[in-house]
Amino acid sequence: MKILAINGSHRRGRNTAKMLETVLEEARSLGAETELLELSDYNIKPCRACNHCLRVIECSIQDDDIKLITDKMLAADAIVLGSPVYISNVTGLMKNFMDRTRWLHMCRNTLHGKVGAAVTHAGLRNGGQELTQIIMERYLASHGMIVVDSRDQEGRIYNHGPMGTLFERLEDGRVIWKKDVEEDSLALHECRTLGRNIVRQLQLLKAARQEV
Ligand SMILES: Cc1cc2nc3c(=O)[nH]c(=O)nc-3n(C[C@H](O)[C@H](O)[C@H](O)COP(=O)(O)O)c2cc1C
User: Fold this and answer.
1) From the CB of 87, is ligand 1 less than 6 Å away?
2) Which domain of life is it from (predicted)?
């Protein structure tokens, strides 16, 4: 049971990375093998829209690091994407990565049947987390992945997925900010639930495949 987390933040190890690490930590405690990949560590050139991937299961750009990442995606059972909100959207790094993985689902849906999930972090309380979350979940679904969210097994729902904010409260008209996501108990709770849900979904899929 391999779970790969991909962080689209331009800052490694910060809020989004901490959220992804919380998802992975929970999954590890249930027996999963995990890896956190920081897109900022990799050289990924922009898609040049040559449409090579409409004919062949590969990308025409071979002189960068995208293959290192897609090999890990193909080997994983589940993929968790994380992005901070940049102007109500995913980051440029995350979008560039998404474009360059088009070849994974054009001629053949190579990620079909894997489990997918997403987490977001933003400064403002409602700074575009929901839209950013939907963009990543839409990407995962477009690759034929089974998208899971952070609703718990008791059916409680607090949020539409793990979405962090630095906003703490208003005090005399002044915003009090959280230091970082470690102070966002709801976001971290949702990340832990998401980690459990991913493992549960993988176990259900494994059992179903053994029955067939
Ligand atoms: C270019 C840029 C655009 C941003 N746009 C938004 C935004 O639209 N809404 C928001 O709430 N925060 C926005 N932020 C703040 C980040 O989402 C926030 O700092 C987040 O915690 C960064 O995640 P990280 O710690 O994983 O890098 C923006 C930050 C940058 C650098």
Assistant:
1) yes
2) Bacteria
Q: Given the structure tokens 């990924």, which residue do they identify? A: 44
* Count of domains for the chain: 1
Ligand 1 pocket residue status of 84, Cβ below 6 Å: yes
| Predicted pLDDT of residue 129 | 98
Which ligand 1 atom is the nearest neighbour of the CA of 87?
A: 8
Q: Sign of torsion, CA 67 40 119 29?
A: positive
H helices of 37-114, where? Answer: 66-75, 92-100
Q: What is the pLDDT of residues 75-114, one digit of tens each?
A: 999 999 999 999 999 999 999 999 999 999 999 999 999 9
Per-residue tokens: 199 = 């493992």
Q: Is 85 in the pocket of ligand 1 (CB under 6 A)?
A: yes
CATH code of 64's domain: 3.40.50.360
Residue range 38-68, pLDDT digits in tens: 999 999 999 999 999 999 999 999 999 999 9
54: domain range?
2-211
Which pLDDT does position 154 carry in this prediction? 87
- The Å distance, Cα 122 to ligand 1 centre, comes to 5
Dihedral sign from CA coordinates of 117, 30, 68, 209 = negative
Would you state the pLDDT for residue 155? 83
Give the pLDDT score at 212: 82
Ligand 1 near 83 CB (within 6 A): no
Quickly count: other Cβ atoms within 10 Å of residue 149's Cβ.
17
